[in-house]
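Reproducibility note. Readers wishing to regenerate the assembly model reported in the main text can use the exact inputs given here. Chain order matters: entities are listed in the order in which they were concatenated for prediction.
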Amino acid sequence: METPKQSKGADTPLLQVLDLSIGIKKPNLTVQLTEGVSFELSAGKIHGLIGESGCGKSISSLAIMGMLPEPGGTLIAGSVRFKGENIYQMDELALNSLRGDKISMIFQEPFAAMNPLVRVGDQMLEIFEYHSVDFDRHQKIRNLLDEVGLSDHRRILKSYPHELSGGMLQRIIIAMALLLDPEVLIADEPTTALDVTVQAQIMSLIVQLCKERKMSVLLISHNISLMAQYADFISVMYAGQIVESNEIKAFLSRPSHPYSRGLMGAVPSLDRENKKIISIPGQVPEPGNYPQGCRFNGRCVDATEQCLNEPPNKNLENGGRYRCHY
Amino acid sequence: MSLLKENPPEEPIIEVRDLETWFPVKTGLLGRTNYHIKAVDQVSLQVKPGEIVALVGESGCGKSTLGNSLAGLLPIRGGELYFRGKSALNQNRLQREIFQNKVQVIFQDPYSCLNPKHTVFEILSFPLIYHKICSPTEVRDYISHLLEQVGMSNEYMNRYPHAFSGGQRQRISIARALGMKPDLIICDEIVSSLDVSIQAQIVELLLELRNKLGLSLLFIAHDLSLVRTVSDRLYVMYLGKIVESGNTDDVLMNPHHPYTQALVQAVPTLDRSHPPIPLDGEVPSFTNMPIGCSFQNRCPHRSDKCIELPGISRSGSREIRCFHPLTEKT
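Running the prediction on these inputs yields the following structure tokens for the assembly.
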């Protein structure tokens, strides 16, 4: 996929991921996990990244933070540019001040992301040991707890993680991610472990914070309804590639890639008249074992000779892109 | 080998009346039981032959406890439990074993419910041999038949669980449950840890098995849109009590209980013009339950009356536990 077009006018995107290819080095070969992943995040917008497990969503998000898994994680090609600067050419010190400070992350499982032996308040303060700041730390923590809708500061800061509910912990994790006023927030499946009612609370909180702070959010999820509700742009990932990316409204009204259509058909819905769901046959191919040509050819009902040989790549007239011959 | 059973059509496979499951709360140095929390409180529920019944609610509301109580995995404190019209409480060990074989459970996490040290063949054969479902000479044939039913090749028989993906492991769990020739399978959040496209495959498999074998399923889930696709009837649970029940489409399209309505409205849809409406507040903890209607602290329609416990009111097949049922579709 070619380099995405520069946005019009002066506003260069906050964060650009360009042709990112990541692999894992094994003793005698390198298994390629993602290939040519490109997208960009702009301020005040939510960019959705959707795909099944093992398709390379999370590894791409880790690569944005310069946190490829050790040992073996390697950058094969491409770059991640934060305000035009390639983070893979920064030294460790500069990178450390970027992580947490400018780019911050919320993880999927709130109970796993917190240390069970340390009080919540101490865990929040810990961040400041590595990042020097000039504001009142305790005041900042209290302000942020207010912002995420937790008002009982004294009790919460003195609690251990197990004493709080999943929704409260996820709010605390969001507050922690915002402690250093980041410009980019990566939310990796932020609500998967939570109930729908709590999911709606957390998502409206993320949207509100994104708009108020002009923050740019990368929302990673496998729930297409969630994307439909909250994302501004969407990229669909399949087997290490972005197979379709577009503005959300255009995408929903007319998904171009058969995998995108498959995803939409596989999602049960409360509002649709026809309540039958259609599954996509087969399984996601393993990394290192991707088929020739179009990577979806083994599961696609319309696959032809051409799909088996040539990797597809197309542009849509409305600025979207997709990888399919048809 | 046919697994199909003939039943008189109307007699429920399983029926509970005013079921209660309590857990002791122990405090102090001596671990004295201080009080009990009622994880399942006055629950009445029935599953008819060939029916898929869903049980929904937020986490911590007692769905799984109810499921485990029905399967005989937890001691029941009060109420009545009938299996095919006969009381399943106070049975002797043999009767109990028969009952437990006929009611199988599939658990949520496909990674922890298969023993990593045993091959698929061993996992599937142990219960068959222990309960003498088939003779040792027939086990291999029976297992390959089971694997075929869940859409897996019998080459997989000698592999270990780690070689399989989440969806495949869930198929193995389904095969294990089917092996006991059950009448009812309790599916406790069996697809919530799977990807959507795999979820759809497993759901299709369950529907197919229901049609082929005439199984009844109790489908415990928190994903309402999935429940709508799968189930015929629906029970909505909140803090240990059933607050609403009825035909799935009726309940979800036109909820009468404010809690059901809040649940429905919180689900994101593909339609951006209907954004999800979050429900304020958190589920109160069981140790600190409100007196009267348990939903009163989050309910937009609360009145003074709600400090008393609302009884169950019926209209047609719908049952609801609320003083202020919603009548108009909003």
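We highlight two features of this model. The interface with chain B takes residues 52-53, 165-168, 195-201, 203-204, 222-226, 228-230, 248-249, 252, 262-264, 266-272, 275-281, 283 of chain A (CB under 8 Å). The longest strand of chain A covers residues 30-41.
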